[in-house]
Amino acid sequence: MTGEVVISVNNLTKQFGTFTAVDSINLDVYRGEIFGFIGANGAGKTTAMRMITGLLEPSSGEAIVAGFKVTQHPEQVKKRIGYMSQRFPLYEDLTVSENIEFFGGIYGLTDYQIETQMNLVLQELEMMHMRRTLVRELPLGWKQKLAFSTALLHGPEVVFLDEPTGGVDPITRRQFWDKMYKEADRGTTIFVTTHYMDEAEYCDRVSIMVDGQIIALDSPQNLKNQFRSDSMDEVFVKLARSAKRSDL
After folding, report:
1. pTM of the predicted model as reported, rounded to 2 decimal places
2. DSSP letters along the chain, please?
């Protein structure tokens, strides 16, 4: 895949004392790409994602996101990315509309922009009738879709999703991916981690980390061809079975 590079990671490394959690990884991610970041527990993918998003200082190397070096211009990077954490990011004691207002304010949107975006989000999700519903009362699938939409309120160039479909039913997972495809078609870059290997099949390209290193990076079809496998699950098992580390 070619095009405008939106994320560039160069020799990114993180050491905790004498332990190397992420070992000099390199990758480029392109505008409008859905990029899968895969790894077993302990592979280092969470540590790597935290460095790429500016949540963790690297020991060496650098990440450039939306044209800005993460360590030198963290505030500029934050304005241009959205992030949906593995732990549910919305406030369950606030209503749907209150959550959108809150995060819109964090992203620096005006009251008019927040109201406009809120109406667009609620119409797209068919949740207009739920705007005064407490988030804790929503089914998990609705919560996840709302969280994703909230991460997109400010029109970020890149959205980082950390296992966004964990625990939801297969139909909701498919709907979630349909929304991801729509955002990618609009030019938004999607950087996603998942433990579901069937979801890796939906990505434009996939990287697989083992013990702190990226040991494979290509399209799902090319990876299946390279490792003579019928599915990404088989590819993953072949590469990850040698992993020796606990979760990072």
Report:
1. 0.90
2. --S-EEEEEEEEEEEETTEEEEEEEEEEEETT-EEEEEE-TTSSHHHHHHHHTTSS--SEEEEEETTEETTT-HHHHHHHEEEE-SS--S-TTSBHHHHHHHHHHHTT--HHHHHHHHHHHHHHTT-GGGTTSBGGGS-HHHHHHHHHHHHTTT--SEEEEESTTTT--HHHHHHHHHHHHHHHHTT-EEEEE-S-HHHHTTSSEEEEEETTEEEEEE-HHHHHHHTT-SSHHHHHHHHHTT--PPP-
